[in-house]
């Protein structure tokens, strides 16, 4: 099936999105954040915690006074490496313990610092490349089932329980497993360390936890003969650090949105824009598929009204991702099945929106999110709504399909809930596999008209955002009906202007490898 | 007349219920029998395991029907509702003007680490829920929505500084009893600060019941499906009753 859509309007939306993002790109190019600098340290191989459980990357940033951050962490850190001849981890431990101090190495020449760092920059990137190559090899040998790929979440709080649930879900047919983070982690300005067994509404994202699930899913992949993907969250105050850890531990997908944290977590917009850019460069290089968070517009406001905002956000996310060197095949734009089930022809609206995204972003691995807002304790009705969601997904060729749970409004899914959800999706997607290819959308009918209206309103919205400027538009409640001032929200104190001579060795290399011009602007 | 009732399948007092659950064992005929005997041990009769299958390595899922011998005397049940003062937005505004004579100051927040504002937003945001306007739209309410992940200390400080009349605490995440812990912490801190009697204290969330709220020391609890006007009416009526009691 094919919607007749106004291709000129689509082109105009793309150029409007580019105009919306361009001034933000200029801002990004002139700034860095503490999270970007900490991820530089993580990519150099630094891991672990010092006194008071403070992660070493945080301890090192703490040793660099705010007024000295303008040239980045790499040079001062490289000076210590050059002078002491120690490995990065040993230097990190020394700095955290106070036996070394960055300030005492200021006299070491810059060229020596760069030279001392070079082999570790190379080995850090080699590690990322090795993960990417391993994924390519495994996907070729252990092919996935056809799209929509079934995606489930596990969220017990205890990483070892999550491991059992992840393997069980893979056995039941899941192709992608996401470990939901503990609620509140997005607001921590550090990444917790080690395996964790306590969490609320989810399990902490830590490098050790990533590895535990990765190993279990690799084993399951080999046994099942299909590669099972692992997902976590590069969002919140530690976006680029999570992206580094995910690259190192070979996660396959990351939730990563250019505006989600600003709107829904009250994280400072400047912090988010700078962080998302570097995290997406890393994602691009590591072959990680991002999932954007447009579903959140629909869960917090009326889904029919918000459809144009979803599409506008998809254009903006795409533009930001392109500017970070991401190819379309790694940009999993989001949407969700959230229209009130009581609305007449709600299903037609859902099909219109999903098919519109499919045609506008033909090479994006679109992420389709299940109903949550209108799910109640009536699990029988919930299972039916999920079935309609599953049908929409398969007939409009969505790529990443988050399985809806019949117990959505009740508890974090039981093992049995997850199995029922996967069975529901497998049944519908099998019985209606080629339905979408066999039907035609009535020209000028309800579905086409709805798609046309959404696109037209999206274009108007992007025009208004372009005239106002993205940062100011966010302040003026253009998105999700919330106002966020440019210098308000969490994490603004971790944003700083780059001074002449700023150096981030990973950014420099990635820009070259990804074919980006220096300074983020295109 | 007896008020004892039993679950109803298709005949009065047949006691029929449906059950489904997972056992951490591989499926086999013996697993079906294990499920049947387990249900019998729960006290059910006429157990029929109508579906049993493997859902993962080492896990089996069952659907069963059975009859319970138990009944309940419905006349003995006490579950007070906080929603008995039904009024529309206009009626609440009129009631507040007449009986309280000043604007009511309401603050709401999703407390603790919970980031799910869907509940508190449905009650407070102008748009409201299911066509019922939120408290921000009430002419006689001055509303403060503090959003998500608000520490109880911050909420109490806010209540003190702004002379809040009614506090609405929301919890959606209930994992490992985090909701109860946070609700309790708020009630205790208000008590410690000597503010408890100065506010109408309400909690809300999909798992909240009015009965549970009472046990936690709250004035009311609002569960799934609650409309903003139901909360507004409760707050207005309770404030009016308190004002009368102190006069």
Top-tier CATH class of the largest domain in chain B? Alpha Beta
CATH homologous group name of the largest domain in chain B = Cobalamin-binding domain
What fold name goes in the CATH topology slot of the largest domain in chain A? TIM Barrel
Count of helical regions of chain A? 20
Number of strands of chain B: 10
At CATH level 3, the topology of the largest domain in chain B is Rossmann fold
User: Which whole number gives the mean pLDDT of chain A?
Assistant: 95
Tags for this model:
heterodimer; A: 522 residues; alpha/beta; TIM Barrel; 2 domains; 9-stranded parallel beta sheet; two-stranded antiparallel ribbon; 20 helices; 11 strands; B: 247 residues; Defensin A-like; Rossmann fold; 5-stranded parallel beta sheet; 3-stranded antiparallel beta sheet; 7 helices
Describe this entry's structure for a reader:
Chain A has 522 residues and is α/β, with parallel strands linked by helices. Chain A folds into two domains: 92 residues, no CATH class; 305 residues, Alpha-Beta Barrel (TIM Barrel), CATH 3.20.20.440. Chain A is built from 20 helices and eleven strands. In chain A, helix 9 links the parallel strand 4 and strand 5. In chain A, helix 1 packs across helix 13, helix 7 runs parallel beside helix 8 and helix 11 crosses helix 20. Chain A is globular and about 75 Å long. Chain A starts with 6 loop residues before the first helix and ends in a 9-residue tail after the last helix. By secondary structure, chain B is α/β, with parallel strands linked by helices. Chain B has seven helices and ten strands. A five-stranded parallel beta sheet of chain B has the order 7-6-8-9-10, with helices on both faces. Chain B has a three-stranded antiparallel beta sheet with strand order 2-4-3, with helices on one face. The longest helix of chain B has 19 residues. The interface between A and B is medium-sized, with 33 and 27 residues.
């Amino acid at each position: 099936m094919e919607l007749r859509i106004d291709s000129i309007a689509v082109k105009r939306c793309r150029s409007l999105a580019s105009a919306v993002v361009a001034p933000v790109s200029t801002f990004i190019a002139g700034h860095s954040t503490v999270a970007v600098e900490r991820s530089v340290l993580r990519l150099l191989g630094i891991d672990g915690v010092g006194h008071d459980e403070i992660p070493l990357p945080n301890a090192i940033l703490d040793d660099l006074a705010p007024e000295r951050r303008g040239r980045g962490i790499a040079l001062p850190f490289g000076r210590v490496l050059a002078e002491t001849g120690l490995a990065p981890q040993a230097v990190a431990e020394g700095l955290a313990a106070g036996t070394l101090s960055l300030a005492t190495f200021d006299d070491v020449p810059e060229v020596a610092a760069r030279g001392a760092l070079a082999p570790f920059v190379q080995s850090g990137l080699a590690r990322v490349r090795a993960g990417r190559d391993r994924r390519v090899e495994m996907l070729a040998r252990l092919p996935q089932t056809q799209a929509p790929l079934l995606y489930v979440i596990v969220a017990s709080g205890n990483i070892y329980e999550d491991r059992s649930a992840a393997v069980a879900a893979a056995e039941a047919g899941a192709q992608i497993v996401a470990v939901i983070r503990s609620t509140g982690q997005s607001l921590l300005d550090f990444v917790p360390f080690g395996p964790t067994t306590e969490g609320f509404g989810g399990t902490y994202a830590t490098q050790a936890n990533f590895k535990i699930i990765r190993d279990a899913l690799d084993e399951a992949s080999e046994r099942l003969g299909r590669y099972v993907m692992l997902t976590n969250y590069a969002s919140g105050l530690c976006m680029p650090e999570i992206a580094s850890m995910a690259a190192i531990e070979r996660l396959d997908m990351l939730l990563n949105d250019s505006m989600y944290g600003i709107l829904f977590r009250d994280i400072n917009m400047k912090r988010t824009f700078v962080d998302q850019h570097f995290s997406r460069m890393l994602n691009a290089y590591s072959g990680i598929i991002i999932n954007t968070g447009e579903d959140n517009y629909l869960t917090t406001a009326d889904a029919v009204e918000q459809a144009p905002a979803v599409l506008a956000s998809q254009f903006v996310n795409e533009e930001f991702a392109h500017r970070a060197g991401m190819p379309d095949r790694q940009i999993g734009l989001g949407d969700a099945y959230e229209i009130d089930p009581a609305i007449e022809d709600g299903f037609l609206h859902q099909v219109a929106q999903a098919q519109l995204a499919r045609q506008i972003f033909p090479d994006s691995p679109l992420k389709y999110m299940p109903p949550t807002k209108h799910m109640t304790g009536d699990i029988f009705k919930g299972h039916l709504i999920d079935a309609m969601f599953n049908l929409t997904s398969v007939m409009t060729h969505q790529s990443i399909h988050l399985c809806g749970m019949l117990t959505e409004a009740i508890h974090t899914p039981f093992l049995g809930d997850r199995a029922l959800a996967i069975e529901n999706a497998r049944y519908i997607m099998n019985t209606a596999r080629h339905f979408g290819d066999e039907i035609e959308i009535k020209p000028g009918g309800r579905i086409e008209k709805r798609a046309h209206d959404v696109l037209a309103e999206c274009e108007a919205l992007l025009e208004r955002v372009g005239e106002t400027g993205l940062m100011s538009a966010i302040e003026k409640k253009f998105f999700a009906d919330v106002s966020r001032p440019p210098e308000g929200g969490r994490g603004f104190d971790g944003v700083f202007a780059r001074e002449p001579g700023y150096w981030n060795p990973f950014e420099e290399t990635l820009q070259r490898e990804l074919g980006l011009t220096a300074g983020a602007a295109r | 007349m007896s008020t004892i009732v039993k679950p109803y399948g298709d005949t009065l007092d047949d006691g029929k219920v449906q059950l489904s659950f997972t056992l951490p064992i591989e499926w086999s005929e013996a697993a079906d029998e294990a499920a049947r005997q387990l249900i019998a041990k729960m006290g059910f009769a006429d157990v029929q395991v109508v579906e049993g299958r493997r859902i993962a390595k080492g896990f089996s899922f069952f659907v069963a029907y059975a009859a319970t011998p138990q009944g309940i005397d419905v006349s003995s049940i006490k579950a007070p509702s906080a929603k008995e003062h039904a009024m529309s937005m206009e009626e609440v505004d009129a009631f507040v003007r007449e009986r309280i004579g000043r604007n009511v100051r309401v603050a709401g927040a999703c407390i603790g680490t919970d980031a799910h504002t869907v509940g508190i937003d449905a009650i407070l945001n102008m748009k409201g829920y299911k066509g019922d306007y939120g408290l921000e739209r009430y002419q006689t309410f001055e509303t403060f929505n503090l959003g998500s992940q608000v520490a109880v200390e911050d909420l109490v400080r806010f209540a003190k500084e702004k002379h809040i009349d009614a506090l609405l605490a929301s919890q959606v995440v209930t994992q490992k009893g985090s909701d109860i812990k946070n609700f309790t912490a708020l009630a205790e801190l208000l008590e410690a600060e000597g503010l408890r009697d100065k506010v109408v204290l309400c909690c809300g969330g999909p798992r909240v019941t009015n009965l549970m709220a009472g046990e936690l020391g709250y004035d009311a609890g609002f569960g799934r499906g609650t409309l903003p006007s139901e909360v507004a009416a409760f707050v207005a009526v309770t404030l009016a009753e308190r004002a009368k009691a102190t006069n």
